[in-house]
Amino acid sequence: MNNLDIWLTIIFLGVGTFLLRFSFIGLVGDRELPEWLTRHLRYVPVAVMPGLIAPLTVWPQATGGEVDPARLIAAGTALLIGSIFRSVLGAIFSGMAALYGVLYLLA
Amino acid sequence: MDQHMSRTRRVYWQGVRAGAPFLLVVAPFGLLFGVVAREAGFDMIQTMAMTALVIAGAAQFASVQLLVDGAPVFIAILTGLAVNLRMVMYSASLTPHLGKARTWQKVLMAYLMVDQSYGVSIEQYQKEPSMPVQEKVSYYFGVISAIAPFWYGFSFIGALVGSAIPPEYALDFAIPITFIALVAPSLRSLPHLAAAVVSVVVSLALAWMPYNLWLMIAAVLAMITGAQVEKWLEARK
User: Cα separation of A75 and B181, whole Å?
Assistant: First the structure.
């Protein structure tokens, strides 16, 4: 890998990512979006984020894609605590505690 | 004027408090990126340039990994962009709330749009849609100011320390935990829960697809599910 490759990647990925981020908020601006579209957009967080991590959770790279009980239990714990108590901190702490707890027990 | 200022400032600090818990996951993730980039052969300046220009951990990891594997540059760039395609959806979903903000604010908010600033802010906007635009902007900046400095800082420390962090620390799992923490609180509503389930099932089923295509398909199907369930619930009332 040479220096030019690295810089090209940094610059094009940086500029391109900015354009993706700016797209709607910048170009649509204060024009109203149609009702059917906003109804769908309300579900963007729950539509994108669970899907993004599902494969990472079930087939983690750190274990070479092997299903890992510690990570599954940690994800389940974070999900349960986070949704029952509606708490971000609760989800993070319980998830990390479960992860390290199970990793320790299995080690 | 004074009263207006103090209100905006209060909302800013509310944002800071709402964003603060994510430090716990952004810090290790940043650390990990610094280490991985240096190991891949990035120098200090390149590592920090990427962290500052792209601010999107998952895409950065994906591109760096491809460069390490010897993929052509345009593949590394396109894959990173594909991972970030979700930002278009974030941008669209923020538009009804932030579209009326000043242009320089929108430029800055776009630059600082990450999963956490988006996720925390949109939750607040949906809870209180009547907030004035300037307060929504303040809240957003509050959330991100609790996160971005630590992303930069910990990437820097990781790049400086350079040595490998043992895999037993399981820092990779900071990402899934972040996203679960962002989404879990909204799952007690039926349309949200249905959308999340579709998102997970479709992603797992299509995970073999290249370039994050699976994520886009899963996201669109999940959005349709959420919207349809919402309509169905409204019709039943």
Answer: 10
ipTM of the complex: 0.87
Question: What spatial distance separates the first Cα and last Cα of chain B, rounded to whole Å?
Answer: 44
Residue ranges of B 4-33 with Cβ closer than 8 A to chain A: 18, 21-22, 24-25
In a domain, A39, yes or no: no
Q: What is the pLDDT of residues B121-139, one digit of tens each?
A: 999 999 999 999 999 999 9
Would A64 be classed as within a structural domain? Answer: yes
Distances (CA, A) of B217 to A78, B127, B220: 26, 28, 5
pTM confidence score:
0.84
Contact yes or no for B156/B31 (Cβ under 8 A)? no
How many contacts does A have with B, using Cβ atoms within 8 A? 300
Q: How far is CA B235 from the centre of its chain?
A: 34
Q: How far is residue B64's CA from residue A9's CA, in Å, rounded to a whole number?
A: 9
- Do residue B53 and residue A43 have CB atoms under 8 angstroms apart? no
Question: pLDDT tens track of chain A, all 107 residues?
Answer: 789 999 999 999 999 999 999 999 998 887 888 999 989 988 988 998 899 889 889 998 778 888 989 999 999 999 999 999 988 889 989 999 999 999 889 87
What is the C-alpha to C-alpha distance for residues B62 and B207, in angstroms, rounded to an integer?
15
Domain span at residue A65 reads: 49-106
